[in-house]
Design a protein that fits this description.
The protein is an alpha+beta fold and 117 residues long. It contains 3 helices and 5 strands, in the order αααβββββ.
């Protein structure tokens, strides 16, 4: 029979493991506000963002979608991985670029998707 102390130790270990896993997942993403605040720092670098798809436009496997992570919004260009539906949650990895224009609309700083979701 397990003692109360053993049960507490096991519960504490489980809680610590879950907390560490959540921390690692959160550390794996970059806040959109950070990129928008200092785009030069991230230019040409591969980052991962996550959030909700606010807008989605595409045809076949190409298009663009806007991700809102609660701190800001950023357009993602996808030319080989398809475009997710509006209001879905995504985690996207890509390279930060500036000065993108789509259909005559200047998008400013964008993320060009480099890995499948």
């Amino acid at each position: 029979m397990k003692t109360m102390q053993e049960k507490m130790r096991r519960t504490s270990l489980l809680f610590s493991t879950l907390l560490a896993a959540l921390f690692l997942v959160a550390c794996g993403t970059t806040k959109i506000a950070d990129v928008n605040h200092d785009p030069g720092r991230y230019a040409g670098k591969e980052i991962t963002i996550s959030g909700r798809v606010a807008t989605s436009v595409g045809i076949f496997k190409q298009g663009a979608f806007e991700v809102d992570d609660g701190t800001g919004k950023m357009w993602v260009l996808s030319d080989q991985f398809g475009v997710p539906a509006q209001d879905t949650s995504v985690k996207v990895t890509g390279t930060v670029e500036s000065g993108a224009t789509i259909v005559g609309e200047a998008l400013g700083t964008i993320l060009r998707e480099t890995r499948p979701r």
